[in-house]
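anyone seen this seq b4? input:
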Amino acid sequence: MSVELKSPAEVEGLTVAIPSRLMEKFERAERELRELYGQSPGLSALILMWVGHGSASDVKREFERAVIEIKRINLTPTEEVALDEDCQ
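predicted toks r here
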């Protein structure tokens, strides 16, 4: 298993390596914000906003998808329901 990473980014004293597939989303969001509003908070701020608003299930799901390559199930549970990825 190989996860392609861009160069680590310094975020308030924490060095993080963002997978390319996620970094592309942040770059697109920043580009779209600049096009719509003429400004953007920048990649680091967008990453911090994303990290700050993720739930525990979001973090777990991202781990399962990125690290152990579990595919998304067809069910979309509510935030209160925690299904494991074995349900297929």
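The chain is about 45% helix and 5% strand. The first strand starts at residue 9 and ends at 11. kinda curious what u guys think
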